[in-house]
Amino acid sequence: MPLHKKAILLLGIVCIVAVVAFLSRGKQENAQPVQPVPAPAATPAEVKDYQRARWDPLHFKPAIETARDEQCLACHQEVLENSVRQESKAGVKAENSLAWYQTLDTYAGEQATFHWRHLKSPYATQVMQMKCNTCHQGSNPRDRAVNPPDVNNTAHVLRKNINPDTCLMCHGKHPNEIMGMDQPWPEIRDSMQNNCLLCHATIRTARHQVNFLKPEAIEKLAAENVGNGGGGDVCYGCHGGRQWYRISYPYPRHPWPGMAPETPEWAKDRPTQSPARFLSGITSNVSGSQP
């Protein structure tokens, strides 16, 4: 075959491939995400195998938004029963080690499992009322990431089972810079009497009014511990004391009595209301407290 005919043939093949790729991409972008067929949630006795269990409607919205803990724990009870290692693989004994978050007055007892700490520990039940679906909002095994990538689609959290923003609310960095503090809280808390309420008795008093916290219990516990020098630990425990991330959570600025009309530069992009799912069952209380 003459060279020029080969070139024309090759060019034609390339054009056909390009057209097919373009049409396929258009179909992919316009395709609607596959939704599980609505069906009543199965009981453990009805689940025949792991694959069917993964696709139980309880693992998807909207069913998971109203799921009760007993429904989740019917199959996942082990998350509360497992115990931590008494010795690491490197040979370090748990009894001889101390994590930074264990130094706070609000941390009691030995190391425990993640879920037990959040759901069943004495301190958690005193100041929180977390549920399984406070953190777990479903995870579709088939569609766990946006394809093609879309920065505007925040419904997917890649292959994470929990949106990290939920964890960040209580495990972010203490934002000492925007508070006008030139040093981290651990370095200045003694000069502040380890008492956050020296300032926050009148500043940002609208806090903690979300359905996974007990605002009255938090305020009471912080005030009661002021006398023994531990009031700040109640606050700092969730505002830097158990830091997992290098950034702070951008808490909404709920209006509070005496709030200045001017918005600081660092707060201009912040919302003025908590996410709707955390407000379910909450009674509005302007003079109360919200995060």
Describe, in plain words, how this protein is organized in 3D.
This protein is an all-alpha fold and 291 residues long. The protein has a domain of 163 residues. Helix content is 32%, strand content 0%. The chain is built from twelve helices and no strands. The longest helix has 28 residues. The radius of gyration is 25 Å and the shape is extended. The N and C termini lie far apart (76 Å). The C terminus is likely disordered.
Q: What percent of residues are in strands? A: under 5%
* Oligomer type: single chain
**Distance, first to last CA:** 76 Å
Indicate the radius of gyration in whole angstroms: 25 Å
Name the average pLDDT: 82
Secondary structure class reads mainly alpha
Uncertain regions spanning at least 5 consecutive residues? 27-39, 286-291
Shape: extended
Question: Number of helical runs?
Answer: 12
Query: What is the helix/strand order?
Result: HHHHHHHHHHHH
Show the helix and strand layout.
Layout: H1 3-30, H2 50-54, H3 69-76, H4 78-81, H5 114-119, H6 122-127, H7 132-135, H8 164-171, H9 185-188, H10 197-200, H11 215-224, H12 231-236
Briefly characterize the structure.
This protein has a domain at 98-131 and 163-291. The protein is built from 12 helices and no strands.
For this entry, give a set of tags:
extended; 291 residues; mainly alpha; 0% strand; single chain
